[in-house]
Structure to design on (996 residues):
């Protein structure tokens, strides 16, 4: 029987090979094929807009305050009816994240009072130098929705006076 | 010593002086009673109801007058209702419960009411992060509101009260702190409540809106973000900014301030000054600053600041290296020796002036102070000594203000003298015209321009006024240069000094100069001499080293001596054969003087460096660097030391602290003073700017030094320069033009703040309506005064046949002069 033992082992191994030939493939042909990310995946940040095109970000810098890696830099300016970026008085005139510092913890999302910043699905980030790793507002802001207009918008006086939208369930 | 009262607050016994309010008694043992409307600097009103506490008092038997005892302890009767801790004074045996169920329920519910219509604005609110309403809500508020969110009332969020202060009506909780500040402290009742109930609004009833020079303080004491400054609006979040302690460089009061800075993308990634906040110093500015100090800070970041040394080459100014510039300057100075003149102004720090003086002494040249006000040797000798504090002055103190419009010249002194007068001090105002402080004075002495010194000499003999002066327990005399030049103010100082001579060295007694610049007093202490005839200086000297002064800008006639500006030479220019002096200018900006210089050395602004100022009260105070220096600019004392080193004179040019040590060793009045001593602080009341929950407010706590009042120099170093010739007086045929000081002028440190432009205006003269009529002029019309075109403004307080010409407003005026006025 000692003579047969290697053959049995060989058969067992080949059987595994044979079996896997007919199994569903686990390898994805990245980058030609991409696996969809999970619902709560935390990738590159996106700055959201309202349906009318106004930016949700009001430049409050609470994301910067919450950031444990001190990766976010926000500078605010004042909106007017003539030149309006976001609802309310204030908008982010500068919004920068140093993606080399960012640890994708999502605290900025949690801190945001207007749900303006969201960690998106994008994870393909490469930089050739440190400076290129600092993303600016125009790189984060999402495209203007079909129904909306680009910012800055000219809005009538007395419109969009609230910075923080009246949310149905403020605990959300 | 006032009577002590013992009471129990939350089980802790505390003894406080009679009349103390419960809220303050509690604070003394570390118990924070929440307040919104209460402010320790103002009369309590008890209108926000946040501070309600349970108060019990011992029961007294009416028949015997004895306290009723129960189980060996006094029987305590609690009121049926809560009482406001901010209006109720303590009484003996009182028992206060600040954290009982009843009191806590009230604190919770008042907050719930306040929040019914307070917007959820914290993310965009400038106060967010330093807001008493936020803090108290976190400490005492209920987790959820029982009110319906949809029923929030909405109001205007962007209401300009004036051009400096904005109101957000929605955020206002109607505590009236701003209104009360304007009424009680500033004495300018320009704010008021309008409507009732839910519709209550803050409005301004002045034209232009919020017409007060203390308006910025209301944003500090506002317990919510209802009042914000136009200057800072959305500039940064409070927690993002760094704080550096500084001293305001705009007037001789020497207010302690904190400079908030932040790196800013808009400014190309540079660290910039975002706002100026008061820093508590109860002996100087308490917790206030004026609007000039708060808003006129933009000179630091102005794009026209000098950043590199320049030297004249083929008639044009060209960039040079520091080494080259210093070598050139040192060579010229060394050649000139005794023919060199140092001309500096009180804009420089003590350290700068000390080094300049040492340089001048080393060369055998003169160190001159560029000023139009004299008498510094007398304030050095008879000034107020250590222990002086305007806040302690009240009944028994007489304060005499001569020839000074404090409201314009030193706004915080105006506030403090007003407060002293309200506490019972006798305030005497002597001036040729009505000034704002007169409203609070007991006596007004009116003289005509030219009679200043004479009037003061005869003052002690006058009936009531004389008595108030001679019999006063304490006497402080403040003199200024309203309508006076160097001669007149020197003579006036001498007259004023006579009044206080006998009291020299006694706290709360002495002579104070209301100088035009922040550190004029320091220059006098360090031995600078005022310059009477600038023209002669430029005619005689071989080299003139000008630091922090713009004589040619102030008086274009002087340029006749300077060949680079040949086109400007007026007809009557002297034709002396002496060659024009070599001019070195050490400045922040390319001023008119700098334009004519042979070498320009870029200096650092007060916000960029370390140093110290001596205030008008002779208090030496330190300032610290807040922002990085512009370009290659260097601190004034460093530049001077480096020049001196070039020709072998050793001066301290590395650390300001060591310059102070040298000063302490060589200058009598600075003896023993060190930077460490200047940085010492003591506990101040009321507590402000800490993490604890008292009355809030964004004034900063003082951790960087209260300053030290310099010792007196008993024998004056020189006699007060007597005016030569008779002072000018207005008469029937001759118009007299006299200089006055305005708060907002066109000086380079003010003019660079765009926000104040509307308040500054252009060149003008003030005439009495009758005078104007005589000339056939109406307000707003143009006149010609000695060749300058000006706008006419009417002011009934101006004497007839006199024209007031504001200084630094584009019209050269050094002192009183005969004026030729005609319609243009």
């Amino acid at each position: 029987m000692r003579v047969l033992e290697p053959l049995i082992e060989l058969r067992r191994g080949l059987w595994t090979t044979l079996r896997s030939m007919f199994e569903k493939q686990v390898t994805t042909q990245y980058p030609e094929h991409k696996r969809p990310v999970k619902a709560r995946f935390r990738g590159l940040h996106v700055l959201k807009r309202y349906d009318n095109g106004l930016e949700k970000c009001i430049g409050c810098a609470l994301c910067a305050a919450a950031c444990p890696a001190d990766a976010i830099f926000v500078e605010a300016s004042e909106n007017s009816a003539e030149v309006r970026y976001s609802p309310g008085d204030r908008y982010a005139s500068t919004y920068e994240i140093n993606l080399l510092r960012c640890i994708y913890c999502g605290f900025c999302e949690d801190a945001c009072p207007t749900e303006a910043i969201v960690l998106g699905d994008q994870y393909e980030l490469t930089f050739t130098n440190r400076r290129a790793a600092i993303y600016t507002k125009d790189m984060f802001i999402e495209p203007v929705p079909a129904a909306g207009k680009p910012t800055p918008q000219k809005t009538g006086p007395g419109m969009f006076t609230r910075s923080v939208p009246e949310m149905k369930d403020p605990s959300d | 010593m006032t009577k002590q009262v013992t009471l129990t607050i939350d089980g802790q016994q505390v003894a406080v002086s009679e009349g103390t309010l419960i809220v303050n008694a509690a604070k003394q043992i570390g118990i924070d009673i929440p307040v919104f409307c209460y402010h320790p600097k103002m009369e309590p009103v008890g209108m926000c109801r946040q501070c309600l506490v349970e108060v019990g008092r011992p029961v007294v038997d009416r028949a015997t007058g004895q306290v009723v005892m129960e189980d060996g302890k006094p029987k305590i009767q609690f009121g049926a209702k809560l009482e406001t801790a901010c209006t109720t004074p303590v009484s003996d045996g009182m028992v206060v419960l600040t954290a009982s169920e009843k009191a806590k329920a009230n604190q919770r519910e008042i907050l719930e009411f306040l929040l019914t219509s307070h917007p959820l604005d914290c993310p965009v609110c400038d106060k967010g992060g330093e807001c008493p309403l936020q803090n108290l809500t976190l400490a005492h508020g209920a987790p959820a509101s029982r009110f319906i969110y949809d029923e929030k009332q909405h109001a205007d969020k962007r209401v300009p009260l004036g051009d400096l202060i904005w109101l957000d009506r929605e955020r206002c909780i109607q505590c009236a702190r701003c209104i009360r500040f304007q009424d009680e402290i500033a004495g300018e009742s320009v704010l008021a409540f309008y409507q009732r109930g839910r519709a209550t609004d803050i409005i301004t009833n002045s034209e232009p809106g919020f017409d007060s020079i203390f308006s910025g303080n209301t944003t500090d004491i506002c317990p919510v973000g209802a009042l914000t400054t136009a200057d800072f609006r959305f500039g940064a979040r409070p927690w993002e900014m760094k704080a550096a302690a500084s001293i305001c460089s705009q007037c001789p009061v020497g207010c302690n301030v904190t400079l908030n800075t932040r790196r800013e993308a808009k400014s190309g990634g540079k660290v910039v000054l975002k706002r100026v906040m008061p820093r508590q110093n109860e002996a100087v500015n308490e917790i206030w600053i004026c609007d000039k100090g708060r808003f006129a800070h933009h000179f630091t970041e102005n794009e026209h600041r000098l950043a590199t040394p320049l030297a004249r080459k083929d008639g044009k100014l060209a960039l040079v290296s520091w080494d080259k510039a210093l070598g050139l300057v040192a060579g010229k100075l060394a050649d000139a020796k005794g023919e060199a003149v140092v001309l500096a102004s009180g804009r420089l720090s003590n350290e700068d002036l000390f080094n300049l003086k040492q340089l001048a002494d080393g060369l055998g040249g003169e160190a001159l102070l560029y000023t139009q006000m004299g008498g510094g040797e007398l304030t050095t000798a008879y000034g107020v000594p250590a222990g002086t504090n305007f806040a302690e002055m009240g009944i028994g103190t007489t304060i005499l203000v001569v020839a000074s419009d404090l409201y314009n010249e030193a706004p915080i002194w105006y506030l403090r003298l007003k407060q002293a007068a309200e506490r019972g001090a006798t305030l005497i105002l002597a001036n040729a015209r009505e000034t704002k402080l007169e409203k609070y004075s007991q006596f007004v002495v009116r003289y005509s321009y030219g009679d200043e010194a004479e009037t003061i000499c005869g003052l002690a003999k006058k009936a009531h006024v004389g008595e108030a002066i001679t019999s006063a327990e304490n006497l402080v005399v403040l003199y200024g240069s309203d309508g006076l030049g160097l001669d007149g103010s020197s003579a006036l100082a001498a007259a004023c000094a006579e009044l206080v001579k006998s009291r020299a060295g006694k706290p709360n007694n002495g002579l104070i100069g209301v100088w035009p610049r922040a550190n004029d007093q320091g220059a006098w202490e360090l031995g600078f001499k005022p310059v009477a005839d600038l023209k002669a200086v430029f005619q005689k000297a071989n080299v003139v080293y000008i630091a922090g002064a713009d004589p040619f800008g102030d008086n274009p006639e002087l340029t006749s001596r300077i060949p680079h500006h040949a086109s400007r030479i007026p007809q009557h220019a002297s034709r002396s054969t002496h060659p024009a002096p070599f001019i070195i200018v050490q400045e922040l900006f390319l001023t008119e003087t700098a334009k004519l210089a042979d070498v320009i050395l870029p200096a650092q602004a007060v916000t960029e460096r370390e140093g110290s100022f001596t205030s008008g009260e002779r208090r030496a105070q330190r300032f610290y660097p807040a922002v990085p220096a512009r370009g290659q600019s260097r601190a004034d004392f460093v530049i001077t030391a480096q020049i001196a080193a070039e020709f072998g004179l050793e001066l301290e040019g590395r650390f300001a602290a060591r310059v102070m040590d040298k000063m302490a060793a060589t200058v009598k009045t600075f003896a023993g003073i060190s930077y460490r001593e200047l940085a010492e602080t003591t506990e101040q009341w009321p507590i402000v700017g800490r993490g604890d929950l008292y009355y809030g407010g964004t004034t900063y706590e003082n951790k960087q030094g209260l300053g030290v009042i310099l010792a007196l120099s008993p024998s004056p170093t020189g006699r007060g320069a007597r005016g030569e010739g008779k002072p000018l007086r207005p008469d029937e045929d001759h118009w007299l033009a006299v200089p006055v000081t305005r708060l907002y002028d066109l000086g380079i440190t003010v003019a660079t703040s765009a926000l104040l432009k509307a308040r500054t205006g252009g060149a003008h003269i003030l005439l009495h309506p009758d005078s104007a009529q005589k000339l056939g002029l109406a307000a707003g019309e143009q006149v010609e005064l000695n060749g300058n075109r000006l706008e006419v403004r009417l002011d009934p307080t101006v004497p007839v046949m006199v024209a007031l010409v504001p200084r630094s407003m584009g019209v050269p005026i050094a002192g009183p002069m005969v004026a030729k006025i005609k319609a243009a």
Observations:
- The interface with chain A takes residues 119-121, 123-124, 128, 149-150, 154, 157-158, 233-237, 239-240, 264-266 of chain B (CB under 8 Å).
